[in-house]
Amino acid sequence: MKQKESHPARPSRDNHFQFLRFVAAVMIIVSHGHCIVLGGQAKEPLFGLFGRSIGMMALDAFFVISGFVVAGSLVSRPRSIEFLVSMWLRLWPGLAAMLVISVIFCALLFSPSPERFLSSSEVTSYILGNLFPWRGMQYSLPGLFPDNPIPGVLNASLWTLPKQVKFYLLAILVFGILAPLFARWKVGSWKSWLGGALWVASMAMAFLTSFLFMGFSRSAMPWLFFSGGILLLRRKGLMPTRLVVVGTFAGISIGMALGSWGEALYYGLIPHVVVALGHVRLPWLLAWNRNGDYSYGLYLYGFPVQQSVLALWPGLSIWSSIATTLAIVGLAAFASWHLVESPALRCKGWIQTQIASSMRLGAPKCTQLRESS
């Protein structure tokens, strides 16, 4: 029986990546709770112990899972148009709804003149600018949350979206080319090893280049994303296991040369840990996959709700603020999935059919033009 493949919109039901994404989203909210209340991540408990906040580690897991799932989608559905439609429907409708809803609630709760606030050029720029993640994101609105430790910032979590979109688009080129090659070249042959060696070299160059411009921790983002994809290719039998080990040690070696030993080992091993956790055999936990994917909603609404909770009830303790935020954001994520995200994803087949039909209608015209010329 052929196993059902994963794709960006609907993860496979025989793994725990959907649950891991949910847990990671909750971890980010807990981390941001300390950052928002205290004004910085340095006072989060785990940051003092490991030098990395719980939110940073959760974000690393997100990038690994995204790379794994995206590679699975491109292996099972190599047509780029299908992948692009899925990506757009997964990201854009939920983002658009969050931008509008969060601005309306801020106008009603924190502005003395909601009409003037909503009609301001800053609000228009905030909504329209953030609808196109590849152009960069706008996190702030002037005058909001003036008494919070982080004033003016409505949604700082959006900084990861442009990077996510860029990685998705680059994945079309990388996995779209490598996966068919590995599928045709027998694993273990010199061609397979040559392709893998080129992959390791290209990843090393990407790592070095991004390090020069972004620093060690930020340069690890493409490594985490594409390492997740490499592990998918290995599980599908399309890449030699030894090559994955070689690539991992190459990444650790580069990290040791550029950063600390601890960071290098962490970044080299975390993709393997996350993918292994996603495939742990826990049959009772598979029922979670029937509930819906609420991680994106938690990610979108977490920061603005946390800022609002702190502005409305400034006397709350850190953990009371986090608990209140999780209750509100949980409801928002539930509504986002069932009212916005899931209905949008159900339109995927219709949109792909319309695109395919338009392409078929255009093909004869091109043929006639070539014949007439």
Note down, in words, how this protein is organized:
With 373 residues, the chain is an all-alpha fold. The protein has one domain. The chain is 73% helix and 0% strand. Helix 1 runs antiparallel to helix 3 and helix 7 packs parallel to helix 9. The longest helix is centred in the N-terminal third of the chain and has 31 residues. The N and C termini lie far apart (50 Å).
Give the rounded overall mean pLDDT: 78
What's the helical proportion of residues? over 70%
User: How many domains, in number, for the residues?
Assistant: 1
Overall 3D shape: globular
Enumerate the spans where pLDDT stays under 50 for 5 or more consecutive residues.
Answer: 1-11, 212-216, 363-373
Number of helical elements: 14
The radius of gyration over CA amounts to 22 Å
Q: What is the strand tally?
A: 0
Distance between the termini: 50 Å
Series of secondary-structure elements, N-terminal to C-terminal: HHHHHHHHHHHHHH
